[in-house]
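Suppose a colleague, Dr. K., hands you the sequence of a protein chain of 291 amino acids and asks what its three-dimensional shape might be. Before reaching for any lab equipment, you can write down a predicted structure in token form. Begin with the sequence itself:
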Amino acid sequence: MLIEQLINGITLGSIYAIVALGFTLVFGVLGIINMAHGEIFMFGAFIGVIVTTSLQLPLWLGFLAAILITAIMGYMLERFALRPLRSKQGVSHLAPLISTIGVSILLENLSHHLFGAGNHPFRASFAEINFQIGSITIYLVQIVIFVISVILMMGLSFWLGKTKAGKALRATAENLETASLLGVDTKRMITMTVIIASAMGGIAGILVGMAFNSVTPQMGLSMGLKGLAIIILGGMGNVKGAMAGGLILGLAETFIVVYGDSGYRDAIAFLAIIVILLIRPQGLFGQKIST
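The predicted structure, expressed as tokens, is then:
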């Protein structure tokens, strides 16, 4: 029983980590919290439902479609909601946050018109396949979710640390003006960051649909707030912190449901925000800023 719940928690936590990485990338480069990320994630989930359930196409095509469309959404978000604010003098530092909140509301309302307000089943063709190891049952869908999440996290870490584009992005995150003086195309890096973050959100949307067998228009808000909790828990702009924070939250929620009251499941994320802000405001992996 304990081992099975650990597996469930790690599976859920790995999805949360992918969602949080999208928040972390954008915050690390732009210094803003993208409140539209949850709704982009939700659109990715619905694209997966349409491709795999309505059109009866293979799951890999669902992932491909979700990546493509959410990447386009990310480009449009940066181009029309964020870039104009960066080019204007005297704009409040809260303006980009408010802009992404507006996009979030727009996308949620659009999803109600396009998909309806109810639950939409998301059934992977291998959802019922499982492996029995003694008294422990492991579902193939859990393995697939975990493997995809690990590949994404390792791939992102390698890209940021070892490739020229990744190093340019890190330089942009460190100091926008200095990176520009050194020849880095910072506008391109910013656009690339939002596109990558959005595409990762689309992938995470399908993974959540696979994990819970359903998709709703409301899932974007819930997941967006949890993603915010995770980056506060792990440390704002810290990639490793986002990964660790996602796993911690996933395990905590799973054990609360099993050994406590499931009604408190969603409250765990916000309790974590309060505790971390009181005890360690910079997050578990963030660095304290001296003033």
